[in-house]
User: Fold this.
Amino acid sequence: MQWRNSPARYGLVSIVLHWGIALAVFSLFGLGFWMVDLDYYSGWYRTAPDLHKSIGLTLFTLMLLRLLWRFISPPPPTLSSYSRLTRLGAHWGHALLYVGLFALMVAGYLISTAEGSGISVFGLFEVPATLTSLPEQADLAGWIHEYLAWGLVIFAGLHGLAALKHHFLDRDATLLRMLGRRAD
Assistant:
């Protein structure tokens, strides 16, 4: 399989980033949903949030790499069989996913650094707290983080359903291209 994208299909780098980021987003959502109900005496009370933050910062790095990769190796053009509305929906849907994910991660960062402490990433290094003086920073960022997480997981689910619709109903190569197969 080729590393870079071609006009007919996505390359290995794009595919790994796409599916890896999708896995991370849904895993972080599940972890976040589970950890908010932990009580102080749970063995995971401190471990789960630390893991969530470390994976979240790793995801942020992967998203930056993915954005850079889109410039280095542009994605294949939309299929010619798409209507104008489908092309616009695909463009704006992907843009919303990117912007939403970055906003979600910035909100998570603002929650974690509100008290002025940096964020340890798997105990290897620390990301410093740079913005800590916003009024009610943790509460406001927490509210934004929660609702963006729900919105993005729902939207990502719709994104997946749209890919399945293209594959099974429209019988086009949309999903196959993200699996590294050639569009005929």
